[in-house]
Specification:
Radius of gyration: 27 Å
Bound molecules: 4-amino-1,4-dioxobutan-2-aminium adenosine-5'-monophosphate, magnesium ion
CATH class of the largest domain: Alpha Beta
Number of helices: 14
Helix content: 25-40%
CATH topology of the largest domain: BirA Bifunctional Protein, domain 2
CATH superfamily of the largest domain: Bira Bifunctional Protein, Domain 2
Number of domains: 2
CATH architecture of the largest domain: 2-Layer Sandwich
Distance between the termini: 29 Å
Largest sheet: 8 strands, mixed
Strand content: 25-35%
Length: 456
């Protein structure tokens, strides 16, 4: 069923509605987002009742259809008496179809208002749990399936869709080919402590922590590839940044070096932020994002080596020992100093995963890079150059206590035409949290999975 010329009729329509529908059988069903283009015309809207108030003589209904909100106004004489009464008794989130003519009104949300001529109740709702009053976070999370209907949450879903589309379109435009990585995996990619084990017939398998190893194989087949999918980490951390299930895009690029992927990350982030600013003004307003903070996201982004980052932390009175990984407060301290993302490079070998290439000029550190978002959002991208040598990789797998056998297929990539290659993983939820200015990553994904949250 497509919006446009379709005309909806039900037997529940009142006499006035019937006569309206009979004289104008092709009243177009439009989306509220398109209403401004139909000012002066009679249209049909299909949605749910967001609010209602009545003076007894005039009723004001605010209808939402997923694309926007429309204030619909009816005087007693505008509707059949039974329609008027049906509306007076209507609870929040009742589904309805309304018809009327659109007129410009600066006071109405979206600048357009509907003069109501007919209304059909599709389904009544009583006692919708989420009312305009304040609710606690736990209550809202328990009702996530209904909370999604609130304008702020709906705006975040749209922002998320735009960020994902921007990621993919950018990679496609740069000639990267989408390759899907498996979800059931036989071995660890990002350390063994966060694995989710599942029964796989007579074997055990793990939910994928990252598609990277498979992308390395695909890059040797296609040159430039990326995967986009969910990642699972049994992280026992209850922070504002950690999800148990999150979505990640992972490009991998044969013959590329650390510098090549850092430049790619910069192009990707500049393009993504610009696109969201360009296309999602309404949504950014709805989530009350200060967009001037996003407008400064332009190339070049600052860069800093891990060594210098450690020195800086110590200088500014947040003691930090060389060799450790940055925690959220350290990342915040580093990234807060900039108005655009910061690249931190050359982490100690011990901090990064087994596959990371050591720096030939300083074997204490490796060719790795994390991208830290500004405003204290912390790491949104992790990546770097991969180990190209079979001997070094074999040794590193031993050092990490990983079973050689499980990685024989991965080592084949070094046996048959190994080349320098590099890539990264960018987290959708962390990136969206920054772009939308969220306090907590839980609002960045439709149904978050967190340490103490598996439902709904
Ligand atoms: O830094 P990570 O662990 O890197 C990898 O998984 C590499 N294999 C990626 C690659 O080089 N192909 O994760 C990459 C990104 C992080 O920067 C972060 O944005 C996101 O994934 N991420 C999480 N997001 C939400 N919750 C978590 N628990 C996350 N863990 C990682
Ligand atoms: Mg990381």
């Amino acid at each position: 069923m497509s919006a446009g010329t379709h005309s909806f009729r039900t037997t529940r329509m009142g006499p006035a509605a019937m006569s309206t529908s009979d004289t104008t059988p092709t009243t177009p069903w439009i989306a509220i987002a398109e209403a401004a283009r139909h000012v002066g015309a009679e249209v049909e809207l299909r949605g749910w009742l967001a609010h209602r108030r009545s003076s007894g003589k005039v009723q004001f209904l605010v209808v939402r259809d997923g694309t926007g909100l429309m204030q619909c106004v009816a005087g007693r004489g505008d509707l059949a008496p039974e329609d008027w009464e049906a509306l007076e008794a209507l609870g929040q989130e009742s589904a309805l179809i309304v018809r009327g003519s659109l007129r410009a009104d600066a006071r109405a949300p979206g600048g357009v208002e509907m003069g109501l001529r007919a209304a059909t109740v599709v389904a009544r709702a009583e006692g919708f749990p989420i009312t305009p009053k304040e609710h606690g976070t736990e209550f809202l999370m328990d009702h996530r399936h209904l909370w999604l209907r609130s304008p702020r949450q709906a705006a975040l879903l749209r922002l998320r869709a735009e960020v994902i589309a921007a990621f993919r379109d950018h990679m496609n435009a740069e000639g990267f080919v989408l390759v899907d990585a498996p979800i059931f995996t036989p071995n660890a990619c990002e350390g063994t402590t966060t694995l989710f084990e599942v029964a796989y017939f007579d074997e055990r398998a793990f939910l994928s922590q990252s598609g990277q190893l498979y992308m390395e194989a695909a890059a040797m087949a296609l040159g430039k590839v990326y995967c986009f999918g969910p990642a699972f980490r049994a992280e026992k951390s209850k922070t504002r940044r950690h999800l148990i299930e999150f979505w990640m895009m992972e490009p991998e690029w044969a013959f590329a070096t650390l510098d090549d992927v850092i430049a790619l990350e910069e192009r990707l982030l500049v393009a993504t932020v610009a696109r969201v600013l360009d296309r999602c003004g309404e949504e950014l307003k709805r989530v009350e994002r200060d967009t001037t903070r996003l407008a400064s996201v332009r190339a070049p982004f600052p860069r800093m080596r891990y060594d210098d980052a450690v020195e800086l932390l110590n200088q500014q009175g947040t003691p930090f020992a060389w060799g450790g990984d940055f925690g959220a407060p350290d990342e915040t301290a580093l990234s807060e100093r900039h108005d655009r993302p910061l690249f931190v490079t050359h982490y100690p070998v011990g901090v990064k995963a087994f596959y990371t290439e050591p720096d030939p000029e300083d074997p204490r550190v490796c060719l790795s890079c994390d991208c830290l978002a500004p405003e204290g959002y912390g790491e949104i991208i992790g990546g770097g150059q991969r180990m190209a040598s079979l001997e070094a990789l074999t040794q590193r797998i031993d050092e990490h206590g990983l079973p050689q056998q499980a990685f024989e297929w991965y080592k084949d990539l070094r046996r048959y035409g190994t080349v320098p290659h590099a890539g990264f993983g960018i987290g959708v939820e962390r990136t969206l949290s920054w772009i939308a200015g969220l306090d907590h990553v839980r609002e960045s994904i439709p149904f978050p999975r967190m340490l103490y949250r598996l439902r709904p």
